[in-house]
Specification:
With 259 residues, this protein is α/β, with parallel strands linked by helices. The radius of gyration is 20 Å and the shape is globular. Strands 1, 2, 3, 4, 5, 6, 7, 8, 9 and 10 form a 10-stranded mixed β-sheet that branches. It is built from 6 helices and 10 strands. Strand 9 (212-221) and strand 10 (227-236) form a beta hairpin. Helix content is 23%, strand content 25%.
Length: 259
């Protein structure tokens, strides 16, 4: 399958969180943030993120101004601008309230592209067209990530793409075999919260939780005290855990002590 080279590039706490109070701790003055410094070394033409990550950081859960009486839009994809770089949002049903068709990321002005499914409404597609925001239709009720990656490669001519969260999208890409490398910038901090996202999160109905092995490629201590580790993605385990009596016994013991 033709697709971009995909790097999951994320900052985590020591306890694996990608959100939390630790992000508000001040770093050393006059030192470049290691997360952005490391990300720039990939020279990617696109960044892809999930809807929640976009809402948390950009659109802030506003409601798009839809015209429910809009004339039917033409079938198929809509490409308002084929010139990168691109900020790509996985937003299957179409909920994000973009104010304009460009967004700033790491000092770059990026054209916004939405990944939608056939379940996205005509009113939402009309909203995107009025804003000059591109969209690619990928799947029926759920986003077909493999198809999305194909279209990003072939229609947007993206060779290298950063996967930037959240945890559910990161894990879904990994379970689908669509991540070549994980770039993890570990901050010298932790907050111990049990309510914030981790780097990878399975969600029932979206992805499985089969383990994946990684091979370390490099490790570097950054100027701000963070540690940058690059991992090559390995194979997903095919082991049937549910048929293993030792695994089942441990899980049953855990469940019995939780009730």
């Amino acid at each position: 399958m033709e697709r971009p080279y995909i790097i999951c590039h994320m900052e985590t706490s020591l306890d694996g969180k990608i959100m939390g109070k630790y992000l508000w701790l001040p770093g050393p003055e006059g030192v470049e943030d290691s997360f952005y410094a490391a990300g720039q070394k990939y020279h990617s033409q696109a960044v892809i993120m999930g809807r929640t990550t976009i809402d948390d950081n950009r659109t802030f859960y506003q409601k798009p101004e839809l015209d429910e009486k809009a004339a039917p839009v033409p079938d198929g994809d809509f490409l308002a601008d084929r010139t990168g770089p691109f900020l790509i949002a996985v937003d299957g049903r179409g909920k994000l309230a973009w104010e304009e068709n460009r967004a700033e990321e790491n000092g770059k002005s990026m054209h916004v592209v939405e990944i939608l499914t056939a379940s996205a409404s005509n009113a939402y597609k009309d909203f995107l067209r009025r804003k000059g925001i591109s969209y690619l239709l990928c799947g029926q009720d759920r986003v077909d990530l493999a198809l999305a990656c194909q279209k990003i490669k072939n229609d947007l001519h993206v060779d290298t793409m950063i996967l930037g969260g959240g945890g559910v999208l990161n894990w879904s890409f990994l379970q689908a075999g669509l991540v070549d490398e994980v770039s993890q910038v570990i901050a010298p901090a932790a907050d111990g919260s049990t309510k914030t996202q981790t780097l990878f999160m399975a969600r029932e109905g979206i992805s499985g939780d089969q383990p994946i092995r990684f091979q370390p490629l490099s490790a570097e201590i950054m100027k701000d005290g963070a540690v940058w580790i690059r991992w090559k993605t390995g194979e997903k385990s095919t082991f049937d855990f549910d048929s293993d009596p030792d695994y089942r016994a441990v899980q049953e013991m855990i469940r019995s002590h939780q009730s």
